[in-house]
User: Fold these one by one.
Assistant:
Number 1:
Amino acid sequence: MPSSAEQSGDVPITAKRADVVRNQKKLLAAAAEVFATSGVDAPVREVAARAGVGMGTLYRHFPTRADLVVAVFRHQVEECAEAGPRLLAETESPMVALRQWVDLFVDFLVTKHGLAAIPQSDSSSATLHAYFLDRLLPVAEQLLDAAVDAGEVSADIQPYELMRGIGNLCIAPDQDPRYDPRRLIDLLLRGLRP
């Protein structure tokens, strides 16, 4: 039998919150896909349609394009940060975990480069960069240390060097179809072997 709240049409606050969280997650996932394929200048209608929500829902969560891009950036940083330890626990070797994490990191970087096109203050840009380093450098270090301890990677590379090198390889401003950053990143990772 339905509760009195359900009979009156009132939805409990916890259910609304779950719905809000679900919509936000759908919007972030859809925006990441759209930004990766069409860039951050893609119509936000495309993001809402891919998420299966209306424009009002999108704007309630993210009043400006910059808000949406920054939220996608932060969400993807968190996903990358959480993936490192999980991959170490689930894969057969630290090097396999490192390679899988680098794939996720590259996926993130493809979306991240569009962030430069969004107007921001220097302080907010610096804050996002600091957040990025604070969350991901320790994960890269954990993965590299595990691979070094397993004898799968030489000990002479620093996490910052690896992340910076991968980031630089991902920069492709003109989307040249002859350039495949993943192939070069694979060569880089092969070069880490002792």
Number 2:
Amino acid sequence: MITSVCAVAAGGLTTWLVVSRGVRRRDERAARGEVIEVPCVLRHPAAREGRWLRGRMAVGPSTVAWKPSTRAGAKMPAPTALRHTGTRAPSWREGLRMNPRCTIVACDSSVGAVEIAVMPHDLGHLLLALERSAT
């Protein structure tokens, strides 16, 4: 029993260290003005109702572009001209499909209303890039 508890604790600590290192590197690259890729899920108007597509948002000083990481997302036209319209927390039902700690950013785009769910430590990067692209 003690061995199992120690193994779970060691696994949790290792995961936390790896994730925090990736976040720290992404923050450093963003501070230097480089384009970074923010992990996210996106609800596209052309996707089936309620479907969230995994991918990454490439954000930088003059760049906001979605890069899908699923076959279903590759078939969709990439949303361009994103304009931030609001933020919200995921609903109870959405929290079952994604991390309930994430924040959902609502945007208007060239393909219609798009929602992007990102983790709190990446929210600032996305909002800053959307603000820069709108001006």
Number 3:
Amino acid sequence: MVRKESESRPSEARSRLLKTATQVFYAEGIHSVGVDRIVAEAQVTRATFYRHFPSKESLVVAYLNEADLAMRGQAEAAVASGLPAADAIRAISASITQGIRSPGFRGCAFINAVAEYPDPDHPVHQAVLAHRQWFLETITGLLAKVREQSAESAARHFVMMRDGAMTEGCLFDPELVSETFLHGVEGLLKAHSEPARTQPTDT
């Protein structure tokens, strides 16, 4: 029994490190927070930190992976609910506005992170791109069920509206931003569900 408890400690320490990093990276930025700060607040040793994360950057990637998993969970729940595709998009949109309205909201963790890691070859930058590609593909797939034609274009429009709402949400009234975003989503769904009108030809 003693050995099992000892074996569980590294996992608990990793969880504390990741929880601490998530809080301070999101609230204060990544480059402004050093390993010493995370180690102190997580109440672990530096040796424990480096046993779980070879570098600060590996911790940053783990932090983004956790955020990615949370968003995937929300999207997958909407898709698995059996709702029509348009309603699944509405559910995803509602979860986005819940985040915008939450205390301590500071925008999109991924957009914030990529601003600090502009090198496209950096693992942090790559983690952001992978997340955004998944999100775009998820929305594209749902919109294709509404109407296959122009689904990718409509999905890019959705992502741009989402990015704008996430940016505006930490600068202006989150209620107004959320209302505007949801109104835009309804407009996009309406426009996308209607086949494009053909222009009359001259006779």
Number 4:
Amino acid sequence: MKAIEVPEIDGAYLFVPTPHVDERGFFCRTFDADVVRSVGLDPGAFLQDSVSRSVRGVLRGLHLRAGGGEAKLVRCSHGRIFDVVVDLRPDSPTHRGVASFELSGETQVTLYIPAGCAHGFQVLTETADTSYRIDRPHDPAEDVTIAFDDPELAIPWPLPVTSMSQRDREAPTLDEALKRKER
């Protein structure tokens, strides 16, 4: 497994495993504390694991946590997703930078998203399972949602949206969401 810096988002990394493939399928390590530690992250800081299953065209996000934010490790364990990160840390050299990736069950690449960044994804395959490792317990009172189609961000979502939560559908623009986050 190796760590690759994401230039558009300061402090973000892709953790790329080396799958061992044979006639049975594949085996790969999806988390390695030593590799995580090698880029200055504390592997023990991740406290909660979650998974979502979604169908083609579903869009989840853009989500952010108020307060101290939350750092995440995100991986598509089955299927393929178009994954997006937006840097909303005011003091970051990549503030308001946007990066997108295709994550897939075939590659098992994990994306590290620093606290203070918004995150969302859209499912590209019939179904996809997305796994999250988060550095603090979820508190719904700190949830912040940003409109996926905010014109300032101009994210090139690859498919028409087939479904999203009511919260995501009613999300405010980036500027409105940031004002709410600061309250």
